[in-house]
Amino acid sequence: MVNFTVVKAMEVLEKWISDNGLIELDRGEQYLVCKEGNNTVMYRGLYLEIPTEGDVAKEIALMAKDRVLYNKYYIVTTPDVANFIDGALVKKLGIGVVVVDGASVREVMRSTPIETPMPRGQGSDQRIEALERGIRALEARVKELEDKVDQLMQALAELKRTPQRVEERRQVQATQGVNVQVPSDVPSFIRDNPWLGILMSKGESES
Would you say 99 and 77 are in contact if contact means Cβ atoms under 8 Å apart? Predict the structure, then answer.
């Protein structure tokens, strides 16, 4: 879902980046990637209508998953959300904070540059795409194996029920050769039940 507060903040940030001589590499509704010297910098928007320290921390933790792909990483947010950002947490992650207030942009916390595992570019993008294809293939394989396990479990449950069914059939067949006198006042739906003969024959054998 598009957050229009973030979209507006990113538009203001885009002008600020251009005014400061940074080179824009990629742009989305809620993020902006640019080049600052030899550093690749990610600016990602963060906004919550009713911010809490816990919710903001969760959002930052999600952002941190792709932190290693960029030399610098900034959270772009508004003053009210910035008040709930745990400074120690973002500092530990090397993430900076940029606050957009109306038409003004302030870098309130610097991002600590890190070495990326591989440079951003066509080669790395192809490697990432290959990894994503591999992950999707593994997920499909896992789903296939899960379906086979379900089928085996169903077959096993059916096998477990087989001896009981065989015994029931044997007992029903055994009653076919037993002549048991059923009282005439027994209702027909009970008198025609083969299990009645089994029970009565057992009673006679025990008496």
Answer: yes
Q: Angle at Cα 169 formed by Cα 167 and Cα 170, nearest 5°?
A: 65
- How many whole angstroms from its chain centre is CA 156? 30
User: Taking the model in full, what pTM does it have?
Assistant: 0.55
Backbone dihedral region of 125: left (phi > 0), alpha (psi from -120 to 50 degrees) or beta?
alpha
Classify domain 4-120 by CATH architecture: 3-Layer(aba) Sandwich (3.40)
- How confident is the model over 65-82, as pLDDT tens digits? 888 889 999 999 999 999
Domain ranges of the chain: 4-120, 179-207
Q: CB-based contacts of 200: which residues, under 8 Å, 6+ apart?
A: 180, 182
| Number of other CB atoms surrounding residue 13 within 10 Å | 20
Collapsing DSSP states into helix, strand and coil, what is residue 72?
A: strand
